[in-house]
C-alpha cells in the first residue's frame, strides 16, 4: 500500500521548508560576514565630517525620514560639504552656493560624470535590452556624451526655440480651453493634468515635429512622471548594498514557492514589493521604448517624403550624414528630450495651488499684465515681457525646488577641494533644496518672495546686485547642467501669463469626481494644505522630484466675453500656424490619428 496522499504532501512540504530554511540560514550567515567586513573595512576614502552610520547600511535608513529635512539637519552640524555612507557607496553632499562654486563650477571637469543605479540603469533602462541606452543626462561621462550634448544643445538654445512657436501656441490654446471647461463646471479641480500635458506635450511635439493627440500626450506625460521616480537617493536599498541586490534576485527567481512559505510568516509583503517594483520599472520602459521607436520611424518616413517641418530630432537628422547615428543612439536622444517639460509642469502645479491661496499675488500679477499690454490678451510667446510673471516663475523654481537633490554626479577623476581628496568614482549630490535656501544667497529664504528677482534684485531684496550665476539650483550648474532650461522658462512663462490674465484662482476641496481625475493618480493619496508646504505637502519625502499632493482649485473667468472671443478667434493673432504647405488646412498636413477631434473646429 502506498503512502497516504496527505502524509506525502506533508513530507514534501517539510522537505521544501528545510531546503528554503537552509537557504535563508546561509543567506543570513553571509549577511553577518558582510556586515563584519563593512564594519571593519567599509568605504572611508573621503576625509570629510559627517554623521555616523550603522554597519552595512551606513546612513541609508536615516535618509528614509526625508531627504530635505535629514540633509538640512546635517548641514547645521557638518557644514556646506559633508560625507555620507550609503551602504557600499560613499557620498559627498554639497549644500551651499560657495561649495557649488568650488566643485561643480571651478572644477567642473572632475564632477561631470554620473553614477549608475540598479533600479534606473538596470531594471528600468536596460530591462528589455542589456545594450539599451540610458538617457544622456543619466549616463557616465564620455566623449560620446559630449557629442550628444552638442547635438542637443543646438536644438534647445533660446535662439532655436522660436522656430517651434507654432507647437507652443497650439498647446497654449488647448490649455486655456481646458481651464475654461474647468471654470464652467463651477467646482474645484486639480490642475496637474492641465500643466503637465501642456509642458510635456510641447516637448514631445517639438521633438518629433507633429501635434500629438490626447491619448499620446497623456501616455508620454504619465510615463515620464513615473519613470523619474525610479531615480531616488538612498532608496531602494539594493542600489547601495550589492548583497541585498543578489539576495533579491535569488528570491525573485524562487518567488512563487517562497511566497507560499513566507506568507504565513508575514514576510511576503516585502518580497511582493520588490517584485512589483521591478515589474513596474519594466512596464514603464516598455511603454517609453515603444512610443519612441514608433515616433522615430514615423519621423524618418516624413523626412524621406520631404517634410520640412522644424523639429529637434528632424533638424539633427538633417544636419548629420545618413547613418551616423545608430538606432540606439537615436533612441537615447529621443528618450532624453521627450519628457523635458516635466519639471516645468511640476513647478506650475505647485505654484498655481500656492497662488490660489494668495489673491494679493494674483491681483498684482494681473495688474502687471494689464499695465504692460493695455488690457489686451498677453502674448504667451513674448517671454519675460512682464517682469512680475517672470519673477513668480523664478521664485517658484527656488522655493519649491521640484528637483530636490538635483541629478547626482560622480567624480570623473581624483579631485582636491579645500585640501580634501575626493577620489574618482565617489557619488556627489548637490542638495538643491538646501542650496536654494542658502542664507548667504537669499534673505528670508523660507518665504516665497517674487520681488527678490525684480527691479535689479537677484536673490535678495535687501541689496541690488548683478545677475551672476544661475538663480537657483533646480536645473543644476556647471558641466552637465540641464540643456532644456530655456524651454522650461519659456513654457513656464507662457502658461502662467495666460492663466493669470484670464482666470482668478481659489482653493477649495475636491469632490469625488475631481479626486478621481487627479493626474497622475498617485497624487490623490491626500490633499495639500493651503500653505503648500514644500516638504509636508509632497507625495513622498524621498522622491527625487517633489510631486505635490492634489490641490483643489476653483477657477473664475475674469471676463467671460473676452475669453470667448479669444477662444473663437483671438488666438489666431499669435500667427504661429506654420506648416509645410501654407495652402493646406492646419490639420491636413498631419496624420489623422494624432489630431484632437475636439480641437479641429477651432481653427
UniProtKB/TrEMBL annotation:
Ligand binding (heme)? 482
The yes or no answer to whether the keyword Nucleus is present is no
Keywords, comma-separated and alphabetical: Heme, Iron, Membrane, Metal-binding, Monooxygenase, Oxidoreductase, Transmembrane, Transmembrane helix
Annotated InterPro entries: Cyt_P450, Cyt_P450_E_grp-I, Cyt_P450_sf, Cytochrome_P450_fung
- TM segments? 20-40
The record's annotation in Pfam families points to: p450
GO molecular function terms attached to this record? heme binding; iron ion binding; monooxygenase activity; oxidoreductase activity, acting on paired donors, with incorporation or reduction of molecular oxygen
Where does the record locate the signal sequence feature? none
Q: This protein's superkingdom?
A: Eukaryota
Would I find Transferase among this entry's keywords? no
Cofactor entry:
heme
Q: Which SUPFAM superfamilies match?
A: Cytochrome P450
Tell me the route in metabolism or biology where this protein functions.
Secondary metabolite biosynthesis
What family classification does the UniProt entry report for this protein? Belongs to the cytochrome P450 family.
PANTHER family for this protein: CYTOCHROME P450 2C30, P450, PUTATIVE (EUROFUNG)-RELATED-RELATED
Name of the protein this chain belongs to: Cytochrome P450 phenylacetate
Originating species: Favolaschia claudopus
Amino acid at each position: 500500500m502506498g503512502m497516504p496522499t496527505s502524509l506525502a504532501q506533508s513530507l514534501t512540504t517539510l522537505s521544501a521548508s528545510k531546503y528554503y530554511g537552509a537557504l535563508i540560514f546561509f543567506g543570513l550567515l553571509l549577511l553577518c560576514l558582510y556586515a563584519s567586513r563593512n564594519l571593519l573595512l567599509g568605504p572611508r576614502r573621503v576625509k570629510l565630517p559627517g554623521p555616523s552610520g550603522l554597519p552595512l547600511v551606513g546612513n541609508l535608513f536615516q535618509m528614509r525620514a526625508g531627504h530635505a529635512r535629514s540633509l538640512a539637519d546635517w548641514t547645521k552640524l557638518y557644514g556646506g560639504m559633508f560625507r555620507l555612507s550609503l551602504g557600499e557607496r560613499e557620498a559627498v553632499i554639497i549644500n551651499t552656493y560657495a561649495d557649488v562654486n568650488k566643485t561643480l563650477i571651478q572644477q567642473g571637469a572632475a564632477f561631470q560624470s554620473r553614477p549608475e543605479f540598479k533600479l534606473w540603469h538596470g531594471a528600468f533602462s536596460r530591462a528589455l535590452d542589456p545594450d539599451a541606452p540610458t538617457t544622456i543626462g543619466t549616463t557616465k561621462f564620455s566623449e560620446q556624451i559630449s557629442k550628444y550634448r552638442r547635438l542637443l544643445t543646438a536644438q534647445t538654445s533660446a535662439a532655436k526655440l522660436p522656430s517651434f512657436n507654432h507647437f507652443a501656441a497650439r498647446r497654449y490654446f488647448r490649455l486655456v480651453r481646458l481651464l475654461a471647461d474647468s471654470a464652467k463646471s463651477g467646482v474645484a479641480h486639480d490642475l496637474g493634468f492641465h500643466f503637465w500635458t501642456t509642458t510635456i506635450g510641447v516637448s514631445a511635439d517639438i521633438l518629433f515635429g507633429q501635434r500629438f493627440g490626447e491619448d499620446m500626450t497623456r501616455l508620454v506625460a504619465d510615463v515620464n512622471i513615473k519613470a523619474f521616480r525610479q531615480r531616488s537617493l538612498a532608496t531602494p536599498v539594493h542600489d547601495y548594498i550589492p548583497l541585498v541586490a543578489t539576495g533579491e534576485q535569488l528570491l525573485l527567481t524562487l518567488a512563487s514557492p517562497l511566497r507560499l512559505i513566507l506568507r504565513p510568516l508575514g514576510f511576503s509583503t516585502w518580497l511582493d514589493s520588490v517584485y512589483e517594483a521591478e515589474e513596474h520599472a519594466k512596464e514603464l520602459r516598455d511603454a517609453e521604448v515603444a512610443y519612441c521607436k514608433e515616433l522615430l520611424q514615423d519621423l524618418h518616413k516624413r523626412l524621406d517624403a520631404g517634410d520640412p517641418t522644424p523639429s529637434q530630432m528632424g533638424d539633427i537628422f538633417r544636419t548629420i550624414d545618413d547613418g551616423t547615428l545608430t538606432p540606439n543612439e537615436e533612441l537615447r536622444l529621443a528618450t532624453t528630450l521627450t519628457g523635458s517639460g516635466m519639471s516645468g509642469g511640476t513647478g506650475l502645479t505647485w505654484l498655481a495651488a500656492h497662488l490660489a491661496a494668495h489673491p494679493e499675488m494674483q491681483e498684482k500679477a494681473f495688474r502687471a499684465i494689464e499695465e504692460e499690454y493695455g488690457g489686451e490678451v498677453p502674448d504667451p510667446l513674448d517671454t519675460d515681457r512682464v517682469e512680475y510673471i517672470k519673477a513668480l516663475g523664478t521664485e517658484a523654481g527656488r522655493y519649491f525646488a521640484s528637483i530636490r537633490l538635483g541629478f547626482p554626479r560622480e567624480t570623473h577623476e581624483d579631485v582636491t577641494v579645500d585640501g580634501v581628496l575626493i577620489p574618482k568614482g565617489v557619488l556627489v549630490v548637490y542638495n538643491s533644496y538646501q542650496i536654494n535656501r542658502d542664507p548667504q544667497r537669499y534673505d528670508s529664504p523660507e518665504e516665497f518672495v517674487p520681488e527678490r528677482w525684480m527691479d535689479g534684485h537677484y536673490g535678495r531684496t535687501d541689496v541690488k546686485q548683478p545677475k551672476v550665476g544661475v538663480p537657483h539650483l533646480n536645473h543644476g550648474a556647471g558641466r552637465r547642467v540641464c540643456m532644456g532650461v530655456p524651454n522650461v522658462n519659456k513654457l513656464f512663462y507662457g502658461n502662467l501669463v495666460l492663466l493669470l490674465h484670464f482666470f482668478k484662482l481659489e482653493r477649495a476641496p475636491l469632490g469625488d469626481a475631481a479626486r478621481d481625475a487627479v493626474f497622475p493618480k498617485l497624487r490623490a493619496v491626500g490633499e495639500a494644505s493651503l500653505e503648500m508646504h514644500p516638504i509636508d505637502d509632497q507625495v513622498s519625502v524621498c522622491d527625487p522630484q517633489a510631486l505635490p499632493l492634489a490641490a483643489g482649485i476653483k477657477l473664475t473667468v475674469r471676463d467671460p466675453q473676452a475669453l470667448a472671443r479669444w477662444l473663437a478667434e483671438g488666438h489666431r493673432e499669435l500667427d504661429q500656424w506654420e506648416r509645410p504647405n501654407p495652402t493646406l488646412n492646419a490639420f491636413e498636413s498631419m496624420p489623422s490619428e494624432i489630431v484632437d477631434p475636439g480641437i479641429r473646429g477651432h481653427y
